[in-house]
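Progress against Task 2.4 (sequence-to-structure conversion) is shown through the following example record, which the project officer requested during the mid-term review.
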Amino acid sequence: MTCGFAMLIALGIAWAQQPAQNQSSEDLQHILSRLDQTAAEFHTAQADFVWDQYHKVVEEHDLQKGTIYFRRVGNEVQMAADITDPPPPKYVLYTDSKVQVYSTKLDEVDTYNTGKDRAMMDPALSKPHEELARWQKKHHPAAAE
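Structure tokens generated for the chain above:
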């Protein structure tokens, strides 16, 4: 299930980037309907990641590597991440509208309440059809019409 969901998201985004003349509205509706169907069946996903934070002012890259995990519990999407490189490791947990970051070096947890911004934390997992349409409208306005 996890590979299928990720594949559908990637397929939908790649398809949305094609020129409008190669797309039909029926194809788009079919893909978006499959995204919604798969999202409704989504339970867990896991992936390795590389997070590259680029600081233009000093032209420097801050690379962090690790593993990210998602799971759906009822209507809530929870996330955890193990950031293992560079050492020392850090752990991130998103649940109950809070992001908690545990720094092993400092042996402390920083907590951030997402509150009203919770919808921004998991739109692609909860409503992929709407998120893909919003992305397409922003990045390819002519194709979205």
